[in-house]
Amino acid sequence: MGFDVGAIRVVACDIFGTTVDWRTGVARQVAAIAAERGVALEGGAFADDWRERYLPSMQRVSGGEREWVYLDTLHRESLDELLELRGVADAFDEGARRRLVRAWHRLPAWEDSVDGLAGLRERYVVAALSNGGFALLTNLVKGAGLPFDCILSAELARTYKPEPEAYLTAVRLLDVDPAEVLMVAAHKWDIDGAREAGLATAFLERPLEKGPSVTADRADDVESDLVVRGFGELAVLLEAGPRT
Amino acid sequence: MGFDVGAIRVVACDIFGTTVDWRTGVARQVAAIAAERGVALEGGAFADDWRERYLPSMQRVSGGEREWVYLDTLHRESLDELLELRGVADAFDEGARRRLVRAWHRLPAWEDSVDGLAGLRERYVVAALSNGGFALLTNLVKGAGLPFDCILSAELARTYKPEPEAYLTAVRLLDVDPAEVLMVAAHKWDIDGAREAGLATAFLERPLEKGPSVTADRADDVESDLVVRGFGELAVLLEAGPRT
User: Fold this and answer.
1) Which among A176, A206, B82, B162 has most CB atoms closer than 10 A?
2) How high is the ipTM of this complex?
3) Is A11 exposed, middle or buried (0-12, 13-18, 19+ CB in 10 A)?
4) Nearest 5°: phi and psi at A166?
5) What are B3-34's pLDDT values in tens digits?
6) Domain spanning B5-21+107-240: which CATH class is it, in words?
């Protein structure tokens, strides 16, 4: 079954890495908060290590090893571990740690995101669909000025992508069929999860997502209906418009 | 305890009657669809009768008399009854009835809503919080160009306002305290429900909400923290800004 652009009614967008540049945003805030406390931390490397703990920490929830918890809680646990590992735990009190966790609530959009989403929004319902909690996403989307029609979060299913329920809860809330939703993501695991849940998929390449020392997912390794290099390109590709 | 504008972080807005003019929108669509079918229906009166069945139909759900169902389903049941009562049931087939139910998905904003919400949004998280389903609200908000930061629906609690869970689910998703949320509504029952759930309240008078022959709720009969005549006035009143 080929991809039918005419069937798409909703464009659901992953956020971290796909729509916003988490690494630049987190690195900058980590470096600033560390500097205030007289600690030298390389923000980029710290952000990389922090993000590396993201998937395994979620998998413990998705796999049923532990109850559902907010992404903020997972971020906090990884942060505590990391500060310990770096031998700087004493320099970061409760207040500083809370501010660090909230760094993930304020991240810059990739250059093409705002205009590209605005273009898509002319023809489609454009939704955020992330593992970030609803409050986190609301703050993040507002801060970055991202023009979504609505915010959806895996929190609403009390699980995490790539579990099918994370996608299917969003599909049900929007009262559409899975095949009417195009999931846009920069990560193979997310594209795979969406496809398995019956959604159409667009892989959005973000070669710089993980900085200079970590290779981001590449289109060659991903099976998706579309491949694009930004939201602007996606808006052009989808100009055939929705079925109406 | 007096009202403290400095405590407010979220402005939650009721939709039907408060933000959009359901009566004008529904009346126009009912009249148009009836005319197509060669039936003379006075759209305004029909809209009034339809809306009159709204609270009782929801109360059967909130009171536990029946399982939670979509607002669309309640609208459809009331519609079927009404068409029967008017003796015009035969003129409206399945397709026409579906279109009539979807009239509630496409309604015009009151004149002050778009600019007033935009003003509020500069200082607060501004959310839709309605008994309309998530999909209905997404369509409605998009169609009317209402600049909300996020859409929340009583559907997320699988109940209806004025049940406390409808408000408190929204509060929890936004990760704030009830007293940090200002509920804006044109209906006494909604203001009462929000207050009982611990939210701050703003009664927004819409004297024309129910048309010329039905009296809308009036400020004198409502106990609320604020009384305003539109979203523009509310934005001015709240200019003291949020606690930051």
Assistant:
1) B162
2) 0.93
3) buried
4) -65, -40
5) 888 999 999 999 999 999 999 999 999 999 99
6) alpha beta
